[in-house]
Amino acid sequence: MGGKWSTMDPSEIQVPEINTLLERDPYLKPYENEIRKRYALFKDYIEKLETGEGSLDKFSRGYEIYGIHINEDNSVVAKEWAPGAQELFLTGDFNSWNRTANSYKKLDYGKWELHLPPNADGSCPIKHLSEIKIIVKDQNNELLERLSPWATYVTQDKSESATYKQRIWYPLPENVYIYKYV
């Protein structure tokens, strides 16, 4: 990988509890250098994550950031991670399937972000159960249709097709179930 840790001599890598491990299982002793190399790769990956996301904890809660989120003011924020994409677009029922009308803005580390303001009447621009797709412009300038890996609701109509459809789950407040026995 070529990071700070993986380029070091394996014997210099401090692996927590390695002596205890080797005492418990002496058959691992011939593989000590390999264990140290793999731990160095692990440390490189952790540093890369922390550089891009701030912390491992923040990275593990990506579902709170990525995907499509509807704010209290009914605006929409969509965030995706697509490092190989040339451009990213959001399309669906809400924009009459105009594939390039709603373009994401490219951020650092392969992140993309899109903001959709609420409609003039204050309603959400993407209605409950609307179908949407991510359009990815790849290295060959092809527009590819994809579902977000952060989709929170997908459906499949087997009588129509074997493919899944990403839908927005945002029911009106009066249609949301309120727990009675908590």
UniProtKB/TrEMBL annotation:
Q: Name one GO molecular function term.
A: 1,4-alpha-glucan branching enzyme activity
Q: Which positions fall inside the Glycoside hydrolase family 13 N-terminal domain? A: 66-151
User: What GO biological process terms does the UniProt entry carry, in alphabetical order?
Assistant: glycogen biosynthetic process
Any GO CC annotation of this UniProt entry: cytoplasm
Spell out where the chain crosses the membrane. Answer: none
- Cite a single Pfam family from the UniProt record: CBM_48
CDD domains named among the record's database cross-references: E_set_GBE_euk_N
- Output this protein's name: 1,4-alpha-glucan-branching enzyme
Q: Which organism is it from?
A: Apis cerana
